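re: ur question from earlier - yeah i can do the single chain one, its not a big deal. heres the input i used so u can compare w yours
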Amino acid sequence: ATRAACEALEQLCTDVPNRQAAADQGCVSMILTTIVSFLTAPDVLQAAFKACARLAQLESLRVDILARGVMDQIVAAMATHRTHLDVQLYGCWALLELAAGDDDDGAPNPCEVEVVDAVLAALRRHAAVPDVVHYGSVALENLAGRSDAARVRIAEQDGCKLLIAGMRTHADIAQPCRAVLQALAVLAAEDPKMHEHITQIGGVRLAVAAMRAHAANEALIEAACRLVANLSMHARVRGIMDQEAALGAVLAALKGFPAAPGIQAYGCCALEHLADDATRRAKIADEGISIALAALSAHGNDDDVLLASFRLLQRAVFTVNERIPPSAKAVRAVVVT
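and the output i got, formated as tokens:
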């Protein structure tokens, strides 16, 4: 009966307006009590985790649930039932929803080490299941985005290798691949050591392969461009990107999704980094300049696109003595100013 009630609540809360209504009727307390009381009942726990994840999608409820210490209970349940697929799967889902948001959103900061370890354990044992890779990757992304402590723990416990392995296993499925790319992009951030580490274990190669295999998937292409943009901050990584044909993949993404501001911003950022080399810069001057100008025209109100496009134009056109397409001359004064 308790499992059925949790499952019914999760279905009810697929509709956003019902989430607050359910909370007003005491459902948050009911779910938390269920998790504590049925620690040895995995079938009940997985249903409670699903309901918890759905409720946590409403920001005010997420903060409330976190304040009650539910993350510790979820981690304890996952440790108790390491081999139970649904407990691990829906535990990761609940954790990723609870870890969403910024540190300054009023929510108590979760105990990063224990939560990270629980997600990594799920990925190690159940990497053959695409949904575990998907949920686990998003959970790690959210945790890494919340705190440096989580980012460090993920790196220490070979989290990047686990993510790469999960992506290799499910290379033909867009959803887990996108989640892995996004998590790696967040983990890479501006850390040179992570740039080299992720590249050495195949991050660039997998990103390029995923862009080719899922060329029509906008969300995946954006995540891949973000990863390439972050990794290409590092000079030694840029040399490896030449071998992996990353430049061509980014150019194809920019041309394929002119209306997608995220792809335009991250793609132009990647090209700006890659344009430090004369050979690459020549190719970018041939194709990337018109792309940057088109991005400026289509997304003139997007600050990220504007900044990335202007930086690309400065790097590719105005700092070298190379052929300048006529269309670029028109914006010379704007960029220099």
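Residues 319-337 have pLDDT under 50 and may be disordered. not sure if urs matches, ping me
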